[in-house]
Amino acid sequence: MDPWRGRQLSFVVLSALWILASAVTRYSIPEEIPVGTVIANIATDLGLDAHSLLERKVKLDYIHSKKYLEINKDTGELYIAEKIDREYLCPAKASSFCFLKMDVIIENPIRIFNIELEIMDINDNAPQFRRERISLDVSESATPGERFSITNAVDADVGENSIETYYLSDSDTFTIEIQSGSDGTKYVDLVLKASLDREKQAVVNPLSGQCKILVFITDLNDNHPEITIKSFQCLIKENDPVGTVIAVISVSDRDSGDNGKVVLSIHNAPSTILPFALNKSSEDFFELTVTESLDREVKNSYEITLHVTDRGTPPLTDNETIILTIQDINDNAPSFPQSLYTIHLMENNEPGMLLASLTAHDPDLNENQYLVYVIIEKEIANTSMSMLFSINPENGNLYALCTFDYEREKEFLFHIEARDSGLPPLSSNVTVHIIILDQNDNTPLIVSPWRPQGAVIEEVIPRSSDKGSLVTKVIALDADSMQNSRITYQFLQITDTTLFSLDQYNGEIRTTRMFSYRDPRHQHLVIIARDNGDPPRSATVTIKISTVEQVVTQFTETTEVPIEYDLFTDLNLYLLIGLGSVLFLLLITILVIIVLKCQEPEPSQAAPQGRNSIISQRNSSTIADSTLISSDAYWYSLFLAETRKGKVVVRQPLPNGAGFIVSSIPGSAALTETSASRSSTLQESSSDLP
After folding, report:
1. Are residues 171 and 250 in the same domain?
2. Which residues are in the Cadherin domain (predicted)?
3. DSSP state of 602
4. d(CA 547, CA 569)
């Protein structure tokens, strides 16, 4: 590799490591704290996953110091491995700050975090004079106020724990004055406050002796206990298991004895039971854990008040409130207010008509509650439901896509699905029953008496009909249902209102009296058939009633003015046509019989005397010879001809089903014929016939 390129690569790597390690995390602890004391959780503070520390080979790299600290690779806690003496670690008093510097190194990928641990001083060192005895030579001519410098005392502690002041035992000759240097060091001078007389006193021992006084201060419960939240998850999922740690809490009290002993508890209303508990993990450390399953739809957040009290007299307390929010998961399927929606729709509706709004509810949040509505496909008469109905996928509005006809489809039954947008999505169905209501949109149809559209019905009745005789019956049908199809009949026009009556329910027209010679021969009736809809629909039929005489009476000249009758009425014409048709058919039948008799074949010699047999074969050749031979009319004509001759005609099928045998037997021999004579009947298979 090129040396210059190698140096560039090294520079890039060092720059990246410097950027990764540029952030410094600082902690402060007092010196001399016990071994095993937890300082902090670096996994939480550095944003690392505590479960991956062992895998990523986390370690501490100390800078010019002993291994005072260690990391718990299971929990990420930084704890004391060896007691720290600030005076040993930072012997110089140039600054009041003392730092223990180290690096936290993790792999996969490699990351470096700078840790600075400030060691705070405690008052663990007593002041000491550098010499136990100080001798001063002072001239008796020294004047009061003269100063004499003495060696300062030293204290390994710093700040407030270092030398604060000096005291001098009671003396009438000397006093002391204390001065502070620029670095805060206290300097003491011995000041002469009275003249000296050597003759009176040669030696003055203002510092002739010293004694140590041990003062015990009785503690007063004047400090409140304190709660410190070391770590806290303000947001947890509603499906987090029981035992999940929510927060790590420490408590402390600066008092001593019973005044410094504290009790931590969860403070809540008497009627409220919180699904959380405090578990003591170590001295003055507690874990707040989940004890019951959580449900965000029941309660979406909890306000937890931590209450700490000491055992002093009177006891002092402190409170700390934390708010825990429950995060939603998709654990609720959408639900409809009802399982079945029945919708009544009047037929002949407008396409695009809004039928109903089918709205489901999902108690989840965000995308877990966003619903989509769809119609579950179902075919009716090769027609899909999506071709008949449409639903808005966002709001559940159901629309009709076409116009419905009650007479074709009376109801529809299908399902609608509401599906949320969670992962995985949840859904539920609802049944929709659409009932088409009938509308009076069909006019009654008169089916009896039948007539072409707009034609007049002609009825003929005897003029001698009795009162109450049935003339005709009008029958009308209506395709609508229920009330809309109930039909009533009425006279719309009538020649003589006293002559006929009409039953409004069954449509029967009857005579109300007998005809008189004054009544016209032709009566015109217009009947209206009206349904019971709103508005009602109707149809009319016109009936022409003609009266005829059954017996023509011979009138004489002595009678009064004779009534003229038309012998060629419509009824007479119909009778003549019918009679002519019957005579014509009879003539044709006779001609057919004569033709068939002329074509009758000679009887077979093998057949018994007095018996004629004819084999009928149902095949195409017979039909080709004569259509009369293969038709049933021929056999019927033959039967008539033979019976007139006094013979009995017998028709028997062939065994193979290909044809049948017709035999004519004399009447006298029919009763005595034995099975032997019947066996002589000519039988031929279909293959032998021409």
Report:
1. no
2. 21-129, 130-227, 228-336, 337-446, 461-564
3. P
4. 10
Is residue 425 domain-shared with residue 449, that is, in the same domain?
A: no
Q: What CATH number is attached to the domain comprising 405?
A: 2.60.40.60
Q: Would you say 477 and 500 are in contact if contact means Cβ atoms under 8 Å apart?
A: no
Q: How far apart are CA 350 and CA 491, in angstroms?
A: 38
The torsion region of residue 454 among left (phi > 0), alpha (psi -120 to 50) and beta comes to left
Distances (CA, A) of 300 to 112, 242, 326: 39, 17, 5
Structural domain total, the chain: 6
Q: With residue 5 as reference, give the H or E element that holds it.
A: helix 3-20
279-293, 342-356, 521-535, 616-630: segment of lowest average pLDDT: 616-630
Q: What is the DSSP string of 211-257?
A: -----PPPP---S--EEEEEEE-SEEETTPPTT-EEEEEEEE-SS-G
DSSP state of 361: B
Q: How many CB atoms lie within 10 A of CB 450?
A: 10
- Asked if residue 557 is part of any domain, the answer here is no
- My answer on whether 459 and 484 are in the same domain is yes
The single-letter code of the amino acid at 539 is A
Residue 503, domain extent? 445-548
Residue 177, H or E segment: strand 174-180
Inter-residue contact 643 to 649 (CB < 8 Å) = yes
Asked whether residue 530 falls in the same domain as residue 457, the answer is yes
473 within 8 A of 433, measured Cβ to Cβ: no
171 contacts: CB under 8 Å, gap ≥ 6: 204, 206
Residue with tokens 């609608």: 416
Q: Which of 388, 430, 431 is nearest to 408 (CA)?
A: 388
**Tokens standing for 352?**
């695009």
pTM: 0.45
Residue 147, amino acid: R
Choose among 179, 199, 198: nearest CA to 189.
Answer: 179
CA 168 to CA 380: how far, in whole Å? 115
> CB–CB of 233/257 below 8 Å?
no
Burial of residue 394, with CB atoms counted within 10 A of its CB: 0-12 exposed, 13-18 middle, 19 or more buried: exposed
245 and 297 both lie in a single domain: yes
Residue-wise pLDDT for 369-413, tens only, equals 899 999 998 777 677 888 999 999 999 999 999 999 998 889 999
Cα angle, residue 567 at apex, residues 566 and 573 outer, rounded to 5°: 115
In tens, the pLDDT along 514-564 reads 988 888 889 999 999 998 888 898 988 999 999 898 644 444 443 344 444
Closest to 144 in 3D by CA, of 173, 113, 124, 103:
173
Helix axis angle, 632-644 relative to 570-598, nearest 10°? 80
- CA count, 13 A, side-chain hemisphere, 501: 12
Residue 36 lies inside a defined structural domain of this protein: yes
Looking at the domain assignment, is residue 628 inside a domain? Answer: yes
Last residue of a domain, one of 215, 239, 274: 215
**CA 250 from chain center: how many Å?**
45
